Amino acid sequence: MKFKTYFSKEGGLKLGVVSCVDWSGAEDIYSCSGDHNLLKWAANSRESVQVATLPEDFHPTDLHLLVLKSSVGAKGGDSLLIASNDGRFVILNKSARLERSISAHSGAITAARWSPDGAGLLTAGEDGVVKIWSRTGMLRSTVIQNEGPIRCAKWSPNSSAIVYSQGSSMAIKPLAANSKVIKWKAHDGLVLCLAWANHTNLIASGGEDCRYKVWDSQGSNLYTSSPDEHPITSIDIRPEGDLLAVGGFNMLKLCHYTGWSHSTCRFPQTVGSLYTLSWSPDGTQIVAGCGNGALIFGHIVDRQVICRNLKATTVGRKTIVLQDIVTKTSDTLEFSDRVIKMTLGYGHLLVTTPNQLHIFNENYINTPVIVDGRTDVHILSLGVKNFVAVDSSSIWIYTYTGRLHLTPKFPGSSAQMANLTEKCISLGVDTLVVRDFADHTVIYVFDLLPGATRQDEASVIRSKTPVTQISVCRAGGTDSQYVVFIDIHRDLYVSNLRSGPDFPIFKIGTQVISVMWGSDSNILVGLHDACYTVWYCPGEACADPTLIGLTTLTYDSTEFGRNVSLESFEGCQIGLRSSGALFTVPVKIYCNLLHKFVQDGLWSQAVKVCRLGQTPVLWATLAAMATRKNQLSISEEAYSSALQIDKVHYLQHIKNLPASSAEQMAENSVLNGRHTEAEICLVHNKKIREAIAVCMRMHNWDRALELADKHQTDVEFVLEERRKYLKALNKDEMNPKFTAMAKIK
User: Residue 13's pLDDT band (boundaries 50, 70, 90)?
Assistant: First the structure.
């Protein structure tokens, strides 16, 4: 992956230093330079038109456009903010007519930025002050007052904090009342540029020490580059948050968000330092202002997506080459407009252009299905039967024939679409899961089956802590669909999507950075700081900590280097990427076969696979899945081979109960961790004493007493068992319900 760059046709020189540039939509660019002219450039033709002339005493230092999110497909900016070196900033409208001119600082304004929500703006200056203004230019507050000059300042993605640089230090100032400033030494020299990613929440900085660095939102250093020949003068992060553009003297670099470099462009002619650069809103183009007065336009080429035997590569703005690695054949796909996004999987290639969505079948590559009217698509996710496309206003679910299947909506969904990321939406076999952007503890579940009630009204899973990533399984039957999610504490949880409306949640991992389901089976891989973990049966075994331990294997990943990321999980191969290199590691093929046999109901073949492999993880995986499917005889053999003797005795007890009786069904539910289901089954069949006994076995004493009191039976028995329990623990009764009931009795 690299930039293909072009220079502005005016060539520069007469323009002076281009101090600020920004995009208006995906086709137009505004720039200001030392000649006091505000120019509008066309990205395709690289030709400019003078929009306005600034006063002679107004020397621009920063420029930022506020683009209206409400106007879908809008080409122009709503308001243009320009700051100068005499402490003034001006606000212009779309027609470049002056709306406000305000004297804000006693020295030069070094940064002027609209907030991401468009409600206000900030200015930072050499006087060491950061101020927040309303959208109309009214002063709201002065958030920073320091002695040293402030060189850079940026908003956080949710407009709740500000990051700024002062000398060689950086600081994060939350805007909440009584919050503390996080400050740290960032570079050995002056910090020259900053960027804060919208979706990954990472901060990038460049300085006079000729290095660029990546930080998290708490100021911890994640990556430090090797020193370049010259200082890093500009930096910006792509809107999706996965790519980083770094500019220096005569140099433009394209980097991964974790820091390592995809490519470095050294220009043949001297253009000077790149003082400013900016990504286009769709993340495919870049513009940079140079010290010699020229503008550099660039777009990404050699983007690659690989799935099994297919590889798609962009070789130009409007050209993709699709290769079959096995047969060594290739097809060249030409488009009428530039390619924005592409994804590959399940035998299909999906490509988005500014106004169309193209669906290619690998067997009929010359006859694509074209969906018109899909603009601003920033998320494409493929499933077995459907795919999901997310634009700035809605979620669209299509079949691979181009038929619109569903447009799911939830409270406030229209306003959240622009902020939705790939980590917050996941498409499964027959389900779609979306995390709420307004409330990060809420997960919406949509059913994609025809006629399902959850198509119109989503079910809700509520987490106790905010969720950072969700992922729904890509294989399995309709009764074995699971979702996993990671919270802000990096704990991993799983829930069965068919267990609603309560959706019991089970914790199965800690310190997890990212997760991915296998494409062919419900095997899960999770990445940690220095290792990765494979859960061979996370859904069926989640209710039993012993089974989770037996079906989970952890492997060291330090040999791959630092900042390892998950790329793919196709078949039995996991793709890991570190510092640009792609590593492939296998999962146990016998476990993958086991999942396929169980899904097809081939239990005899599943047992043969376990007898052939003879490993504890195989037997434990079979035990968990057989127990969930009520295959008690197979479960007994599997538990016995996995040396789980207590489970064997319990299964024998269940098998000795009357067949298909309420007691047997309840005990089977208890074995699968469905305690509420067991209680309901017994109460419904008027087995009150047995239901009370189940509650006491699960130490749910309040529910046991509630059942006994409601049905006026065995209250004394519950109280006596409670006394024995507390006596064994050598504790006194502290539950007021039991204390009050004991007084009555």
Answer: very low
Q: Is the dihedral of CA 134, 138, 141, 146 positive or negative?
A: positive
Bond into 60 cis (ω within 30): no
Structure-model confidence comparison of residues 302 and 660, the more confident one: 302
Distance (Å, whole) CA 198 – CA 217: 12
Whether 15 has a pLDDT exceeding 70, the answer reads: no
User: What is the share, in percent, of the chain residues with pLDDT greater than 90?
Assistant: 46
Three-state SS sequence of 225-284: CCCCCCCEEEEEECCCCCEEEEEEECEEEEEECCCCEEEEEECCCCCCEEEEEEECCCCC
Largest CA distance in the chain: 98
User: Using CA atoms in the order 265, 267, 273, 276, what is the torsion angle rounded to 10 degrees?
Assistant: -60
Angle at 286 between CA 193 and CA 47, to 5 degrees: 120
Q: How confident is the model at residue 452 (pLDDT cuts 50, 70, 90)?
A: low
Per-residue pLDDT reduced to its tens digit, 248-299: 999 999 999 888 899 999 988 788 899 999 999 888 999 999 888 889 999 9
What confidence tens digit (pLDDT) does each residue in 200-213 have?
889 999 999 999 99
DSSP assigned state of 174: E
Helices (H) and strands (E) in the chain, counts: 13, 55
Q: Kindly tell me if the per-residue pLDDT of 230 is higher than 50.
A: yes
Integer angstrom CA distances of residue 22 from 59, 184, 196, 200, 248: 17, 29, 16, 22, 18
Q: Distance between CA atoms of 664 and 307, rounded to whole angstroms? A: 46
Contacts of 70 (CB under 8 A, 6+ apart): none
- Rounded CA-CA distance 671/669 in Å is 5
pLDDT at 71 over 50: no
729, with CB counted inside 10 A (0-12, 13-18, 19+), is exposed
Q: Average pLDDT, stretch 112-133?
A: 91
d(CA 151, CA 130): 11
Closest CA to 129 of 154, 110, 155, 116: 110
Q: Residue 372: beta bridge partners? A: 356
Report which residue type is found at 671: L
Phi-psi region of 414 (alpha: psi -120 to 50; beta: other; left: phi over 0): alpha
CB 438 within 8 A of CB 158: no
Residue 75 pLDDT = 40
Is the Cβ–Cβ distance between 148 and 139 less than 8 Å? no
Report the mean per-residue pLDDT for the chain: 88
**For residue 643, what are its two tokens?**
């040396």
The stretch 38-61 carries a mean pLDDT of 86
CB 646 within 8 A of CB 654: no
689 phi-psi bin (left φ>0, alpha ψ -120 to 50, beta other): alpha
Residue 94, Cβ density class (10 Å: 0-12 exposed, 13-18 middle, ≥19 buried): middle
Please enumerate, as own/partner, the contacts of 676-679 that have beta carbons within 8 Å and a separation of 24 or more.
676/502, 679/703, 679/707
